[in-house]
Design brief:
Radius of gyration: 22 Å
Oligomer: single chain
Shape: globular
Largest sheet: 8 strands, parallel, barrel
Strand order of the largest sheet: 3-4-5-6-7-8-9-10
Strand content: 5-15%
Distance between the termini: 59 Å
CATH topology of the largest domain: TIM Barrel
CATH architecture of the largest domain: Alpha-Beta Barrel
CATH class of the largest domain: Alpha Beta
Number of domains: 2
Helix content: 40-55%
Length: about 425
C-alpha cells in the first residue's frame, strides 16, 4: 500500500518505522505528517534502498546531490563515482539530471547502485528523445511526456520534478515584470518554448491528473518544479515566481486528494533579506508541504564559490522552515561538476543543514556537537577527526602540522588554552 494511502488509513508502514528510528521521533508523528502532507517518504515501490529518507516538518534537514552526464561530457563511471561520493559525505538523496545519448544507461545504473532515493526530471529525456527524431521541442505531445514518466517510474525512480506550474498565467506575470534573466530552469524554458510556439497551455498542467495516476501507481513523490525561479537576485520574489507558487499550492492539494506525495520546489537566487518571507509564504500557500530549495544563492558575483553562497542561503532557509536543500557546487554556472566539486557541494550543504538543525533545536544535531566539544576538551585528535564531516581532510590537515604527534596543534603550541586549563581545573 502507498505511503500516503496507508497514513490516511492510520496504518504505519515499515518505511515509516525506519524514518521514525532514524529521526528519533514517534512512528505516529511520521504517519500523521504523511497523512496531512507535511512529510514525504521518497521511495518508489520498485526501488529497494538502504537509507529510507523522510523529508518534512519536525525532521532533520535533508540534502540532495545532483549528478548526471551532459551532451558534451558523458562517462557512466564518473557519474557512479559521484553517486558514491555523494553517499559517503552525507547526501540523503541524489538526482540524475543526465542528458545525451547515454542518459538511459546512466539512470538505470544509478538506480541499481544507489543506496539512497533517486530523483529525475523526466522532461529532460523527453526533449532528448524528440531531438533524436530530428524534431523540435514544439513537436512534443503529452503522450511523449507520459511515456517517459511511466518508464522512469517502472525503473524505480523515487521522486520526479514536474513543471506543472509553468502556465500561460504565470508566464504573463513574469513577462510583465521584464526580468533581467528571464527563465533559468531548463525544464521551465522547454515548456515555455512549447507554449509560445503552439500558443497553447502547458500540457503537463492540462493533463496533471494523468501524471498523478502514474505517480500513485508506483508511489513516486512528485517534486512540483519552480520553472519561474529567479536566476538572478535582481529578479527575486517577483509576480511570475509567486504566481507559480500559488498554483503549486493548488496542485499539491489535488495530488493529496489522489493519494500522491508532493514536495514544492523553491528559489533559486534570492538575497538574504527575502529568504524568511519566501519560506513563510511557501508554507502558508502550500499548506506546509515540504519545501525543496536550490541553495538559495544569495549573491551572483561569486562563480567558483557558489557552494559557499548557497550554503549561506541554505542555512537561513532551513532555519526558517525549508526541509530539503539541493546542493550547489563550486562549478555552478561554469561547467559540469567534477567528482571533487560534488564532494565540496555535498559537504557545504551538509554544513548548512546541520547548522540550521542546531538552531532549530534538533537533539541529534546537538549531540553530535556535544561529542565534538568533549573530544576537543580531552585533546582527543583521533576522535575529533572521526566526528568531522570530512575525516580524510581533517586528518590531512592534522598531519601537515609540525606538532602532529603532540597533544596540541601548531597554532598555539604549548600555550594551548585547553591544555593549560586541563592541568589546573
Amino acid at each position: 500500500m502507498r505511503q500516503k494511502e496507508s497514513a490516511g488509513k492510520g496504518k504505519i508502514t515499515e518505511e515509516m518505522k525506519q524514518v521514525a528510528r532514524n529521526e528519533g521521533v514517534s512512528e505516529e508523528q511520521i504517519r500523521r505528517g504523511i497523512a496531512n502532507g507535511e512529510i514525504v517518504i521518497t521511495k518508489n515501490k520498485n526501488h529497494e534502498i538502504q537509507r529510507v529518507c523522510g523529508i518534512g516538518k519536525g525532521l532533520s534537514t535533508k540534502i540532495n546531490s545532483n549528478i548526471g552526464s551532459s551532451p558534451v561530457h558523458m562517462n557512466i563511471g564518473e557519474e557512479i563515482e559521484k553517486l558514491i561520493v555523494s553517499e559517503k559525505f552525507g547526501a540523503d538523496t541524489v538526482m540524475d539530471l543526465s542528458i545525451g545519448h547515454i542518459l538511459d544507461k546512466v539512470r538505470k545504473e544509478v538506480i541499481r547502485e544507489s543506496r539512497i532515493p533517486v530523483g529525475t526530471v523526466p522532461i529532460y529525456q523527453v526533449g532528448y528523445e524528440i531531438s533524436k527524431k530530428r524534431k523540435n521541442i514544439e513537436d512534443m505531445k503529452i503522450d511523449d511526456i507520459l511515456d517517459v514518466i511511466q518508464r522512469q517510474a517502472e525503473e524505480g525512480v523515487d521522486f520526479m520534478t514536474v513543471h506543472c506550474g509553468v502556465t500561460q498565467t504565470s508566464l504573463e506575470r513574469m513577462e510583465k515584470e521584464k526580468r533581467l534573466l528571464n527563465i533559468v530552469s531548463r525544464g521551465g524554458s522547454m515548456l515555455v518554448v512549447w507554449m509560445k510556439k503552439n500558443r497553447k497551455e502547458n500540457p503537463m498542467f492540462e493533463h496533471y491528473d494523468k501524471i498523478l495516476a502514474i505517480a500513485r501507481e508506483y508511489d513516486v513523490t512528485l517534486s512540483l518544479g519552480d520553472g519561474f525561479r529567479p536566476g538572478s537576485v535582481c529578479d527575486s520574489s517577483d509576480r511570475g515566481q509567486f504566481q507559480e507558487l500559488l498554483l503549486l499550492g493548488e496542485l499539491a492539494q489535488r495530488a493529496w486528494e489522489k493519494g500522491v506525495q508532493v514536495m514544492i520546489e523553491g528559489p533559486g537566487h534570492i538575497p538574504l533579506n527575502e529568504i524568511q518571507m519566501n519560506v513563510q509564504m511557501q508554507k502558508s500557500v502550500c499548506h506546509n508541504a515540504p519545501f525543496y530549495v536550490l541553495g538559495p544563492v544569495v549573491t551572483d558575483i561569486a562563480p567558483g564559490y557558489d557552494h559557499i553562497t548557497s550554503a549561506i542561503g541554505g542555512t537561513l532557509a532551513a532555519y526558517f522552515g525549508a526541509d530539503f536543500l539541493c546542493y550547489v557546487t563550486p562549478s555552478e554556472h561554469l561547467k559540469l561538476p567534477s567528482i571533487e566539486d560534488v564532494k565540496e557541494g555535498v559537504i557545504a550543504t551538509k554544513i548548512a543543514a546541520h547548522a540550521a538543525d542546531l538552531a532549530k533545536g534538533n537533539q541529534q544535531a546537538w549531540e553530535r556537537d556535544r561529542k565534538m566539544g568533549l573530544a576537543r576538551k580531552n585533546l582527543d585528535w583521533e576522535k575529533q577527526i572521526k566526528l568531522s564531516l570530512d575525516p580524510e581532510k581533517s586528518r590531512t590537515y592534522r598531519k601537515l602540522s609540525e606538532s602532529y604527534d603532540r597533544d596540541f596543534c601548531s597554532m598555539c603550541g604549548e600555550y594551548c588554552a585547553i591544555k593549560q586549563l586541563n592541568q589546573v581545573l
